[in-house]
Amino acid sequence: MQENEIDDMIAFLDGTMEKGVSRLKVQTSEELEEGQMVKQYHHGRCDVGSPWAKGTVSNCDAIDS
Known about the structure:
Layout: H1 3-18, H2 51-54
């Protein structure tokens, strides 16, 4: 990663936090074109893409409250 790319990433993270986002999960992918970014948002604290976040947990009746 070159210095200007690092500076761009830091600026992105700072700007995101200034907008009130308190939790981030950052992943890199060689499947995306250079400079391309994909954002996902969800409500709550479960992992993005998990069965809990997607609402696809099959045995949620069995969870103690």
